[in-house]
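Human: I wish I could look at a protein chain and see how it folds. This is the protein in question:
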Amino acid sequence: MGAWLDLLIAGLLEVQWSVCLKYSHGFTVLPYTAAAVAGMLASFFFLAQAAKALPIGTAYVVWTGIGAAGAFLAGIVLFREPVTPARCFFAALLYQVTPSGGLESLEAAHLDRMIAFANAAGSLATTKKGGVASAPALAEIGRCLTDYNTIDFY
């Protein structure tokens, strides 16, 4: 359990430093620059602690997944970044890739399901207005895939 907690902390620190990086305005605002660098170092430290007990491939995929998803959501919530179909597509693809252990371990059929899932997320994002509200919920994606017999949603 300790390694997984270290990994969670490392992933959350990834989100922290990415937000501080944005607020640092290209390393021109010293407090946010210092917070970003401190977050990076702390994130690597906790990743290294987790990697003592977990396979590095697993640790790295989970770490980057937490960081990427968190930065994606933080950008929408904190910086009012747009929720475009392309961003939803790639966020949904990341959501599918992360638990699979990476692209190198995938079979063609699984990759097809992942692309269909990401495509449904991107397509559904075009039907709504607003920031967070335009990002489709997991249940909506499942209904879309089931309704159009694209894949058996799992």
The CA atoms of residues 80 and 131 lie 7 Å apart. The chain has six helices and no strands. The radius of gyration is 17 Å. Helices lie at 2-23, 30-51, 56-79, 85-100, 108-125, 138-147.
